[in-house]
Amino acid sequence: MRFDILTIFPEMFPGVLDTSMLRIAQEKGAVSFDLHDFRDFANNKHQKVDDRPFGGGPGMVLKPDPIFACLESFLPADKAPPPIILLSPQGEAYNQRIANELSQLDHIVLIAGRYEGFDQRIVDGLPVREISIGDYVITGGELAALVLVDSIVRLLPGVLGDADSATYESFNNGLLDHPHYTRPVEFRGMTVPEVLRSGDHARIAAWRKQKAAELTRARRPDLLDPKDRPST
Ligand code: SAM
């Protein structure tokens, strides 16, 4: 899978992309990253990519021309473009379902915003899908792009050491994950539940399912089928 990432802060990426699972995924050839600094495509003396908003108001707005020119520099004009994702608080809310969907693609372009965000003609004039990582505002789209990259790449075949890890995680079956324990059996008066040490796989599976359901009902009833939600 290939990611092209448009940003004016490419230096924010190597630390994350070259560590742990993302580094290994690159070494295995499962994924590659191309970072594009769209400031290089600003057609003015000071390489400005932003300007004041029409109509007044605080902050600066990302100009359309550097982003269009940057995309046109690496996307062939005679081919349908790959999915282009604009990181934006106004986008659809990101979740595991979208991560699963995007992990089926072989090429994705991510565009990280800054300042007050994008000139609307970037949204209207490009075939973009706007995605938000949550109902809060961060300073730039770089961290949001990395959230998408991490959550997608770990789903690619052969990337996680144990393929079952992703299958049994929170959200994949509509439930939060169950509690986990490791050694020691007793720690500061807290003991690993007996069932997990019993070796009885059917009982262990039932206990985990029950704990996952309890946790989901208590914390995220919105994830449950309406008929299974606790009455309020
Ligand atoms: N004026 C915008 C608003 O109120 O919605 C906020 C702009 S924010 C300071 C600058 C950039 O950070 C955005 O263009 C976007 O790329 C990124 N960003 C901020 N919060 C985000 C979120 N929740 N999800 C995705 N990207 C986000």
Task: Give the SSE map.
Layout: E1 2-7, H1 14-17, H2 20-27, E2 32-37, E3 50-51, E4 61-62, H3 64-74, E5 84-93, H4 96-102, E6 107-111, H5 120-125, E7 128-132, H6 141-153, H7 164-167, E8 186-187, E9 190-191, H8 201-219
Parallel strand pairs: 1-2, 1-6, 5-6, 5-7
Antiparallel strand pairs: 3-4, 8-9
Bound molecules: S-adenosylmethionine.
S-adenosylmethionine binds at residues 87-90, 112-114, 116-118, 132-134, 136-141, 144.
Characterise this structure:
There is one protein chain. With 232 residues, the chain is α/β, with parallel strands linked by helices. The chain has 2 domains: 2-153, 3-Layer(aba) Sandwich (Alpha/beta knot); 168-232, Trp Operon Repressor, Chain A (Orthogonal Bundle). The chain has helices at 14-17, 20-27, 64-74, 96-102, 120-125, 141-153, 164-167, 201-219, and strands spanning 2-7, 32-37, 50-51, 61-62, 84-93, 107-111, 128-132, 186-187, 190-191. The strands form 3 sheets. It has a 5-stranded parallel β-sheet with strand order 2-1-6-5-7. Strands 3-4 form a two-stranded antiparallel ribbon. α4 (96-102) links the parallel β5 and β6. The model has no long low-confidence stretch (mean pLDDT 96). S-adenosylmethionine (SAM) binds at residues 87-90, 112-114, 116-118, 132-134, 136-141, 144. S-adenosylmethionine (SAM) is lined by residues 87-90, 112-114, 116-118, 132-134, 136-141, 144.
Short description:
With about 230 residues, the chain is an alpha/beta fold. The protein is built from eight helices and nine strands.
Largest sheet: 5 strands, parallel
Indicate the proportion of strand residues: 15-25%
Average pLDDT works out at 96
Number of helices: 8
| Fraction of residues in H or I helices | 25-40%
In total, how many domains does the architecture comprise? 2
CATH topology of the largest domain: Alpha/beta knot
Large-scale geometry: elongated
Low-confidence stretches: none
For the largest beta sheet, what order do the strands appear in spatially? 2-1-6-5-7
Please write the string of helix (H) and strand (E) elements. EHHEEEHEHEHEHHEEH
β-strand number: 9
CATH homolog superfamily of the largest domain: SPOUT methyltransferase, trefoil knot domain
CATH class of the largest domain: Alpha Beta
Specify Rg, calculated over alpha carbons.
22 Å
How far is it from the N-terminal to the C-terminal residue, by CA? 45 Å
By secondary-structure content and strand pairing, the structural class works out as: alpha/beta
The small molecules bound here are: S-adenosylmethionine
Which CATH architecture of the largest domain would you pick? 3-Layer(aba) Sandwich
